[in-house]
Amino acid sequence: MRSLVALLIVALFAAVVDADEKSPRSQRTKADSDWPQFRGPNCSGRAAPGDRLPEKIGPETNVLWKIALPPGHSSPVVAGERIYVTAERDKRLWTLALDRSDGRLLWEREAQARALETIHAIGSHAQSTPAADEERVISFFGSCGLFCYDRNGKLLWHRAMGPFKNEFGAGSSPVLSGDRVLLCQDHDQDSFLMAFDKHSGETLWKTDRSEFLRGYCTPVVWDIGGRKQVVVAGTLRVAGYDWETGKEVWTVRGIARTICMSPVIGDNGRLYVAGWSAGGDPGAPITVEPFDPVIKRLDKNGNGKLEKSELTSGPIAERFPQVDVDKDGSITRAEYERFRQLFREGKNVVLAIQSGGQGDITRSHVVWKNNRHVPFCASPLYLDGLLYTVKDGGFLASLDANSGELVQRDRLPGSGTYYSSPVSGDGKIYIVNERGRLSIVQAGRTWRVLSSCDFGEDVYATPAIAGGHLYVRTVGHLYCFGMPEKK
What we know:
The chain has 487 residues and is mostly beta strands. The strands form nine sheets. The chain has a five-stranded mixed β-sheet with strand order 14-15-16-17-23. Strands 1-35-34-33 form a four-stranded antiparallel β-sheet, with no helix packed on it. Strands 2-3-4-5 form a four-stranded antiparallel β-sheet, with no helix packed on it. It has seven helices and 35 strands. The radius of gyration is 24 Å and the shape is globular.
């Protein structure tokens, strides 16, 4: 009798396991529940389908766990059973590995820095998001370089870099794709795009981008008919580079002079790019007087250059360190006229690009443009045939991804500035502003705000979604949210 009961229990257990293995949720790979880099899989901002997520959260609502973290603007990433973030503590730079189940610190490793680079007033020395898989984690700390650790915190390789000429610091993030690490660094001089072997750290190729000035675009990988391209948006244009060689394949011109966001790829195979800079809106240009009358009027020492003491007002004076590309303390004719050109040609725009082009495809492959709903730092989000953009002030717009026409625009509960980018899962969009006001939106052609909350702390990091959990990093904490357990 006992043997019969045991056999029945085994059979019942096997049936449950078999049913679970056939369920949509269990058929997903482990990687499907990961969030391996900035904005998740290929910078999409979208979580894998199949997991329920809360429609209401807050510092005391649907919190599964909460831990204190040292400061840092990098977003959390999730790989396997680990969460990785970077941080700055006591003027030292750290990579932290946390247990996914409870946030417990598993290890921390210091990135040795000879000196901390200059950064923006609201920036961080830990503002680039790491990239990870179940074997390794890649951290980037600007001029301190690129670091690769195994899952137990052993340093596998390090690539020193810089110093970069950019008083705002480095901000774009590494990408871990297949067997390689991709990194784009656009600064005031010596900009580049590089591919590294993820196992050894050896350079596979390096592409010169010296024509591009400072920018903060994290690359995306665009698979076109089985051939991969690396796409980066920068000064005045977006470009696609061959995966194997790093050579430029195509370009689209006519975007903003400075790019602070990353492109996204839609399910329809199109690429969506956005870029906003002051002076690029229709009817609101920044006009700059030519160099010759300015130097004649202001060059007090007669050296043919403009010093900061000589140039005290106007758009060039306001951006003196940026215009002074070589950082020698003065602005030459070439530097001045280059920025005059940028103000003249830069266009704030959201645009859609069709795949398959070569060379300059500005006229042949741009499907549509929209210059009215352009975000500043928050990357756009593609979801179910709509492209969502968040402008500072809390204005959320949804555009038809096929035509670029406005579908809906309304104001979120949180106004102010948005450095964090929107992310989505379970048909919901999670959007948080600089002051920590988070809004949850039910996505759709008629979208609506489900709830909002206030964390009481600033937020610069983009949330992560993995395995039915939402991870939100404030300047002082990391929260894990999820659906309440059924009783």
